[in-house]
Amino acid sequence: xxxxxDAGRLRLGVNIDHVATVxxxxxxxxxxxxxxxxxxxxxxxxxxxxxLREDRRHIRDADIAGxxxxxxxxxxxxxxxxxxxxxxxxxxxxxxxxxxxxxxxERTTEGGxxxxxxxxxxxxxxxxxxxxxxxxxxxxxxxPKQIEASARIGAAVVELHTGHYCDLHHEGRFAExxxxxxxxxxxxxxAHALGLEVHAGHGLTFDTVGPIAALxxxxxxxxxxxxxxxxxxxxxxxxxxxxxxxMDAARA
Length: 252
Ligand code: PXP
Known about the structure:
By secondary structure, the chain is of the alpha/beta class. The chain has 11 helices and 8 strands. The chain has one domain: TIM Barrel (Alpha-Beta Barrel). Strands 1-2-3-4-5-6-7-8 form an 8-stranded parallel barrel, surrounded by 6 helices. The protein starts with 10 loop residues before the first strand and ends with a helix. The structure holds pyridoxine-5'-phosphate. Pyridoxine-5'-phosphate binds next to strand 8 and helix 10. Pyridoxine-5'-phosphate is lined by residues 15, 17, 51, 78, 98, 100, 108-109, 139, 159, 201-204, 222-226.
């Protein structure tokens, strides 16, 4: 997201997909994800993330257009590496694009992208996006093979998948969680050493954000599902403010 901002500050990108999930569950016009995004900006989000899935199960094309028109902060457009999504990205020219693997039957983005396997295709895929001035991010696991491949194909950013770390925490498997955290820390170091900007996200909550926010190479966290759920109890603004407070405390 915005490079002009303080270089050392950990940025918070708020993912508003699940506002659209609630809207679509009733086929209504509300709640509006664009309104939620504006509220998130007002509450201190450094950017907004939205995932346009192939099946349009939450965010729709009109939401992307609405976000591009309304946002003051950068949009991180998350999508699969398909020709359709490339055309949409080139039409809207968001600040950043985050490429994710997508399976129709999954409930959420379950794993990272296999950049090493798909290296040649992804190199060609991201070239026009880079030429259009869009920052390209790869959503990957902490496997060094995937990090090195992301650097080789010319991605600017890697976003490390924190979902497994969060699951292990919430299942009480703390030794495995700590091993996963150590692997994420090593991945962040390697990515940084290769000149990649390091982001992280997926499944983060108030309880799990601290150790990830504390990794010095990590520059941005993208958090959605927990914040939208927590908004039921606290309101979206206070939930974001509390996440920000925990990020800052961990960083300090
Ligand atoms: N980053 C990426 C690349 C994602 O796919 C997602 C989920 O859409 C997130 C971050 C946010 O994950 P969560 O909604 O679990 O916080």
